Amino acid sequence: MALTVKKFGGSSVATTEKIMAVAQRVLREKGPEDKVVVVVSAMGDTTDDLITLAKDLVGQPYQYTREMDMLLSTGEQVTIALLAMTLNKLGHPAVSLTGSQAGIKTNNAYTKGKILSVEPERVLGELAKGNIVVVAGFQGVNGDGDILTLGRGGSDTSAVALAGALQADSCEIFTDVDGVYSADPRVVTDARRMKEITYTEMLEMARLGAGVMQPRSVEMGKHYGVPIHVRSTFTQDSGTFIREAYTVEEKEFIIRGVTHDTNVAKIAILGLPDHPGVAYKIFSALATANIDVDMIVQSIRNTDKNIIDMVFTVAQPDLPQAKELVEKLGTEMQVFGILVDYNVAKVSVVGAGMLGHPGIAANMFGAMSDAGVNIEVISTSEISISCLIQADKVNEAVNAIHTRFFPRES
Ligand code: ADP
Ligand code: ASP
Ligand code: MG
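# magnesium ion complex -> structure
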């Protein structure tokens, strides 16, 4: 007897035929004594469509974060009800639960909710009755009983959190690719599939744009020690295992992957006074508004005028609010000007092996130079190097860097 959590993403449940195929697969893979929890996303592009509806009505719907969560959480509720009905129709008892009913408790950060705890009693009770439990991904409930969503891609985190709380034997993430690749296979046609990757490297890849897993889900997997199996909904092949350490192969790779992120925007503040407390003022205001800031670069002081420039990036949906805050502070501090740019993207190389291997940055910059891509901002972590570039160059840059680190086999 095994307890498994299986998560099916939006493209895996995009149509009623696909929901039927998911139900059939779940039943085919389930032994008579097995307990199964299925976490599902909204059908196809439903979440995007719901955002468009709100934009059509109010322009900048993320001002109304509580209402956005009420709206966006409906997508997953459609899928759970349809899948639970289908499983019943195919002859197996099943019950659908919202995130709240499944005991997923979050903080109060509407639209970016973080799971604080999972109280799995209801899920365990339904499993004990013999039900397959179908849980709405991407959502939880705060202390006031309000629905929160967990950020884009949040169903991954719902699944891993449930697997952790239920001490599941496995957590499978079924998606439209058959594993984690050395770059997004939609952009790099000869990207290589990995058999396994560590939580640390996967977290860095996810954080830097590898949308196949939400970063929080990988953190959660590491925290609970849940091995995560990323695999295809449409084939039987084994995919990629995300776990603590490598077991057999691929250890010798210095670089594990090349990632890109087009969901970024750049803000530049020109002519800031150069004295203590200025950076604090800006970034504490952004932090209070729950806006994540990524690459930060401060120029050296212009000694004639005692001023500096500051450049940083935020996620695109946060740009309107970030801009408003920065403009207010900019007026108070009498800065020269504020520039924003939506047309940027971040490309990164990731690999724990780069520690102790000099020359990775030079190699990456060389590939971009050969491809004629201009670098605007550079940032590094212990296991990654990232460059901000113009968005229209992103595919060229990712391919050039990938070819440099993973030469095409002839
Ligand atoms: P789901 O709806 O199943 O959650 P997502 O669209 O969120 O699926 O994630 C799967 C997509 O992630 C793939 O179609 C692929 O284009 C993209 N992706 C980005 N980087 C990678 C990578 N390194 N490996 C695999 N897929 C990636
Ligand atoms: N439906 C949500 C989204 O599109 C959550 C998910 O699919 O994981 O981001
Ligand atoms: Mg996803």
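# post-check
The radius of gyration is 23 Å.
Residues 9-12, 41, 153, 175-177, 180-181, 183-186, 210-212, 257 surround adenosine-5'-diphosphate (ligand 1) (CB under 6 Å).
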